[in-house]
Each structure stands twice: as C-alpha cells, then as structure tokens.
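Might I ask for a little of your time on a matter of protein folding? The record follows directly beneath this note:
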Amino acid sequence: MLSAADLKAINEALVTFKALELAGHEVSKETFPLPNDLSERLSSAAYEVHRGRGLCQIQGLDPTLYSEADNLLVFLAIANYIGDKRGIQDKKGNVITHITDAKAWTVPYEKRHVVHTNQHLTWHCDMGADVLALQVRQVAARGGATMVASSWKIYNIVASERPDVIRVLAEPNWPVHVSNRKSRHVLASLLEFHDGKLLMNFDPSRLGTHPAMKPRRSRPVAIPSLTEAQQEALRVVAAVAERNSLQLGTKAGDILFINNWALLHARSAYTDSGEEAEGQGTVNQRRHLLRLWIRNSQLGWKIPENLRAPWEAAFSYADEGYVSGDHQNGAVTQLRYPVMPEPDYKPARYTTGSAAFVIEDSESEYDDE
C-alpha cells in the first residue's frame, strides 16, 4: 500500500517529468525520479516478482485524481522498476493495450477477440511476456475478477495425478502460432526446466489450427491440429489451475505485476453498468485495464531456445542476442502508447492467443497469391 508520502513523491516526479516535455516512451528512473525509500521498495517488489512468489499488487493510487495521460505516465514509471524493457503487443508497435469492452464499440462480440468482450477468459499466460503488468483504471459492476495459479503447484499436482499429461506437455511438438515467421508457427513444448526454474508457456487459444490461417504458395504447410492427447492435457491443466487458484481483489488504481513464466491467470465473466442510479444520474462503471509486457534486464529469467519464438515477437526489437535465424525482424518504426482505447473497434483479420497478439492485419497476408 502506497503511503501519503509515496503519493506525494509520485506527484512531484510527475510534475518533473512533464516539465521535461518528453514522450511516454522516455519514462525512466532518471526522467521520473522517485525517492530512495520508494525506489528501494519497488526494487524489492521486482525481486519478489522474479525470485519470490511471482506476484506484486500495488495499491493506493486514485485514478480519478489524474488525467488519462498522467495515469499512463504513472503506470509506466512504476512499472519501470519491475522491468526496464517493454515488449510490443502487435505489429503496429503498440506497447499498451486497453483491455475493456468499450461502450462506443458497435462491432458484435463474435467479431472481436475475447479480451475485448465481457466473457470468461480461460487459464493461460501471455506467451512471450516475462512479466504481465496491469493497471486497473476501473472495475466492472459485477464479476471480472483476475485469478492466478502457480505453475509449480500445477506441475506437482499433475505429475502426481496424471504423469502422462506431464510427458505430453514436455514434448516439443505443440504447434504454437507466432509472428514474424515464414511458417507462422513453430513446434515447441509448453513447459521446460531451464536454469533451475520451471517455465510454463501455456495458452490454449494460441495452439493448433486457426480458421483464418490458410495455406498458400509461399506458406504451403498448414498449422497442425492438436492431438487428442494434447487436447486432454489442456483440459487437465485448466482444471487443476481452477481448483488451486487465488482470486485477486482489485479496485481502481491498483497495479498488478505477474510473473508470466511462473503463474497462469484467468478472468471471470463480468457485467458493466450504464444504468440510471436513483438520485445519482447515470452510473457508467465499465471494466478497463491497461496491459504492459515488461522484462527486467538484471532479474529476467533466461529463456530456453525451445520457448523463444513468442518472446522474440514481443522483445526482439530490443534484441538480447536471442533472435533466431528464420526470424523476420521487421522494423517497428514507432512504438505506440495509446492513452485511450480506439474509438472504433477494427477487427483484425487474424489475432492469436488469449492475449490477442495481432500477427498481421493486411489483407494480402491471407489472400491466396
């Protein structure tokens, strides 16, 4: 919980940063300076995320006291202490994604990705992200809870109850959708022990065939379907995660940091409110989170080659020497930090994964040549 002194220091640092007339991507420890006491506690939080429980929840901020732009700056500044590198979340270069069901959007749910609806989001991790950072701008009227489950606990229970499932998860034959690859998929395992750690790379909606991905002359091999054993493994992991989950109580202003290799997360269905409240006029309570993918240069986990492909799609523009030979490292001309959701929802021709990573938006990518 941030103290009154912490909030005062954050506000003073915000004034200092804005006086420099810099852009959001220039937020750093140097340009958004926080006092030693708060800096040290945030650094300890980074250690807890990477070497401890894998989770940190910062409370005490009131988003109604800041403009939308200032809320984003504060989020970036605090997140910078947990991870100093920011991943891109689509080929447009978006570093920030707004997770919401905006009232202005008229596109029907069946044409949206599930993260942009009010529906249940199944157990997964955001493939490719080291740490998932979420800023809660507003909570839903009902539901919309974020749940987490330990990958280690899931592994231990499944290994005890269904060792056959562990063997299936560890086989490097899962077809994973990826960006910037000629084949548009790689074969990888969903878990691996590396550098003394268990890494789980689990997102059911980013695996197997995809209805929008058709073979063509330049990419004649279709993405393989999942086997019955693989489908069963996904069901087992989801069931174990569900019965061993922790629901995070959040309110507007909270910031969550989740170690994406060590924890799975899910979201319950929710209901927003725009109804008339007696004596209060219109109440417009709509769930709205900002998502950021980050990596800590010092504490970030070493990534085994088998799991690098999704990571490369998010972080290869800040290359650490992991980029493999067939990675088409298309230049990101400008990193984008959108302050608000797009006023008009534009369905991508092809998104993949529970995290809605947009592989490609151009029609030519999918039309037969």
Q: What stands out?
A: DSSP finds seven helices and 20 strands in the chain. The chain has a mean pLDDT of 87. Residues 4-19 form the longest helix (16 residues).
